[in-house]
Design brief:
The complex is a heterodimer of chains A (112) and B (113).
Chain A: E1 5-7, E2 10-13, E3 19-24, E4 31-37, E5 44-50, E6 53-57, E7 64-68, E8 74-78, E9 87-94, E10 102-103, E11 107-111
Parallel strand pairs in A: 2-11
Antiparallel strand pairs in A: 1-3, 3-8, 4-5, 4-9, 5-6, 7-8, 9-10, 9-11
Chain B: E1 4-5, E2 10-14, E3 19-25, E4 32-38, E5 45-51, E6 56-59, E7 62-67, E8 72-77, E9 86-92, E10 102-103, E11 107-112
Parallel strand pairs in B: 2-11
Antiparallel strand pairs in B: 1-3, 3-8, 4-5, 4-9, 6-7, 7-8, 9-10, 9-11
The chains are: A mainly beta (112), B mainly beta (113).
């Protein structure tokens, strides 16, 4: 158990809908990262927050947004969902800005 | 542009033998590397790391070697066990002021009993 929690574990929705994925980092970790893993693909970095502020953006679509709250949990919002958004979404946390990241179990999103 | 590359998508090894997983990088500003292990339907688990000030780091059956001049690192697993069967990712968590972590595409290791 990495100490990072993600909810929900599974999510099935329809095209055009909007969903919110939630992540709680390890106690004491200030950094939260979001990744997408599509079938047979590696981990695609989406976005990084540190202590409530956005620090880096990767290949994140404009339909996706994220935030980190004062209690350090983070939410990833996916809107106008398309079939191609079906993937595993992982959250990771680390103590500092460039430290070892610890991953949650992931949220499997299926868009029908 | 893939700054961290794992050119072997899969590797098959006999139990008890050595597994060698390779990783190449292009950005000379990377100064810290990580290996993660991932089982299906689970999140990646941190395995071992190495700083650019070292050329080797060992943890039990796992050893990571770093060749800075060749921009190459490798993960050695000795002896390999069936429970080591997983996907292994090489990663550079940050590079010279940029906090964009970069992961390789992963190598799927299968250890046969």
């Amino acid at each position: 158990d990495s100490g990072v929690t993600q909810t929900p574990k599974h999510l099935i929705t329809a095209t055009g809908q909007r969903v919110t994925l939630r992540c709680s980092p390890r106690s004491g970790d200030l950094s939260v990262y979001w990744y997408q893993q599509s079938l047979d693909q590696g981990l695609q970095f989406l976005i990084h927050y540190y202590n409530g502020e956005e620090r880096a953006k990767g290949n994140i679509l404009e339909r996706f947004s994220a935030q980190q709250f004062p209690d350090l949990h983070s939410e990833l919002n996916l809107s106008s969902l398309e079939l191609g958004d079906s993937a595993l979404y992982f959250c990771a946390s680390s103590v500092d800005l460039s430290d070892t990241q610890y991953f949650g179990p992931g949220t499997r999103l299926t868009v029908l | 542009d893939q700054q961290v590359k794992q050119n072997s998508p899969s590797l098959s090894v006999q139990e008890g033998r050595i597994s060698i997983l390779n990783c190449d990088y292009t950005n000379s500003m990377f100064d810290y590397f990580l290996w993660y292990k991932k089982y299906p339907a689970e999140g990646p688990t941190f395995l071992i790391s190495i700083s650019s000030i070292k050329d080797k780091n060992e943890d039990g059956r796992f050893t990571v070697f770093l060749n800075k001049s060749a921009k190459h690192l490798s993960l050695h697993i000795v002896p390999s066990q069936p429970g080591d069967s997983a996907v292994y990712f090489c990663a550079a968590p940050a590079s010279g002021g940029s906090y964009i972590p970069t992961f390789g595409r992963g190598t799927s290791l299968i250890v046969h009993p």
